[in-house]
Design brief:
Layout lengths: L2 E5 L2 E3 L5 E8 L8 E6 L6 E6 L6 E3 L7 E6 L4 E6 L8 E7 L23 E2 L3 E5 L2
Parallel strand pairs: 2-11
Antiparallel strand pairs: 1-3, 3-8, 4-5, 4-9, 5-6, 7-8, 9-10, 9-11
């Protein structure tokens, strides 16, 4: 199964940009859907974006559509989340996650819609994003 770890968080001013990385260990990387999630204190973890396995369909939360972009680099075994025009509402701890391959519906995860955290099993430790002037 795939293990993942996030990097790239930090402090950015409103209107700025960040690139988050979700780097995987284990194989095969290409068949795994990867999800990005955000959590702020006192709120449930919310799905931000996901990319499906093999064919790389992408989906986004309405709040980040047209500002965020997810992509997969197979050579680097990394999924990136490019975040532009950041606002204070984008702040939080960002997590990436991968499903376990024996899970039912493994190949359908993120194929047609943004997928909730219930479909993911292996989580990274998270990376903090702060948006403040």
């Amino acid at each position: 199964q795939l293990q993942v770890a996030e990097s790239g968080g930090g402090l950015v001013q409103p209107g700025g940009s960040l690139r988050l990385s979700c780097t995987a260990s284990g194989s095969p990387f290409d068949i795994y859907a990867i999800g990005w999630f955000r959590q702020v204190p006192g709120k449930e973890r919310e799905a931000i974006s996901c990319i499906s396995g093999s064919d790389d369909h992408t989906h986004y939360a309405e709040s980040v559509k047209d500002r965020f972009r997810i992509s997969r680099d197979r050579g680097e075994k990394t999924v990136y989340l490019f975040m532009d025009n950041l606002t204070p509402e984008d702040a939080g701890v960002y997590y990436c996650a991968a499903p376990q391959p024996l899970r039912g519906g493994f190949f359908r995860i993120c194929a047609t819609r943004l997928t909730s955290e219930r479909d993911f099993d292996n989580w990274g430790p998270g990376t903090q994003v702060t948006v403040d002037s």
